[in-house]
## 1
Amino acid sequence: MMSTKRFGALIAGALVPALMIPAAAIQADAASAVRISGVQYDSPGSDTGSNYSLNGEWVKITNYASTRRTLTSWTLRDTSNHVYRFATFTLGAGKSVRIHTGRGTNTATDRYQGRGAYVWNKTGDKAILRNAAGATVSTRSW
């Protein structure tokens, strides 16, 4: 059974009747400032398996905060448990980074998993972003 919390308010000297709000709604976590903001799970063109094609699939992560965020040891994974772990990395305020499937040179805006096979399923999958403590902070399903 869902518990509720009772709230009353004092307005102009009178107590307004208590409002019943489910406790689960009160305890819900605020959205993370760092979230998955886009997914390209089907690389454009033919799926040739080339590095160019592999890098055509990516997950975009955006920092919506007004301060930079350290993503060192954060992970990005799918439902088949393909895991990408951020090495030392900081995402600037209001900035985004794309995590590509194939190989490449890491920059502030593009990171590479170094895989030789596609990760994201076209028929349905889920990208899961977890912080360094292992808590899920953002997901995107299709």
## 2
Amino acid sequence: MRHRRRGFTVLELMVVVVVGAALSQMAIKGFGYVRNQVSAREARTVFGAMVARTRAQAIESGQRTLLIADAQGDSVMILANGGVVETIRFGKDLGIDIQGPPGMTRICMTPRGYANPDCNSFSSPIKLAFVQGPKSDTVEVLPLGQIRW
């Protein structure tokens, strides 16, 4: 009578480990791709919220409010009443690289809730790109302060 052992052979276990490692590797790469995509989209949304907050601040205070996007420093700040209202450092806080026109992009919101093209640092639509890894998401800013996704 022959007794058959129960369980797995070493070869079978090694095959399972190798297949599991390969699947894990693919999942990790896919997760990184999705993470970059979501981060770029989130940064674009945060910028849109900053523009909306600048507009609201100008209307509430009744004074001109500035939004300054610094592509070189990867940051965006709101200035009102001679002081900084809010600053978001996209590079440090979100790991995002802002790409746009050289220098600082300035949007001047009036108390009426639209941008003043004479005070802005641009007179025609500009594009800002929010980049993380191979993924990017762009936003177009119009001279009167509107945003196109």
## 3
Amino acid sequence: MAEKWEIWDSKEKVARLEEKAKKLVLEQFHKWIKVFGKKASERMSTKKIWNHMIELKKKFVPRKGKIYLLSREE
């Protein structure tokens, strides 16, 4: 039975921590509030096959591209 209470205690603790985070985080970011938790923020993302370094040729020179002006609606 002690395990049952520990589970509920941890859920309540998470809920309390989320409430504290909501006070600190802007309202527009509340739908992602779980990301701001301590445990979630310390977790590393999983390694993916596309996580690799892009090697450039020695002759490569970065160039500026054209800037297209857009209105707010666009």
## 4
Amino acid sequence: MTVPQETQRQTGAAPARQTYDDYPERGAGWLLFAGTMLCLVGTLNMIEGIAAIDNAHFFHRNTNYIAGDLNAWGWTTLILGVAAILVGLGVFARNQFARWLGVVAASLPSSG
């Protein structure tokens, strides 16, 4: 903890040394960015998954899927969206496993 300069002048105390604890964690801004992006992408995936499950009108009709149908892909997208939000919250909590899971999630190709 540092002593204000006015107090130092009045008391004649030597200036306090700053310690490592006085500085913010290195990379805290990047963790905030990564957690925010994971939560944002997870939310958008949840919305898209719910829309696909509900057969919303912005999906193409009569589309042939290689595996499953629109409903199956909707559930898959919804589950991946929930997982991305949980990983994003884990990044906010500074969980090391969530950080690595976020790196893996960011390296996967996107569906959009």
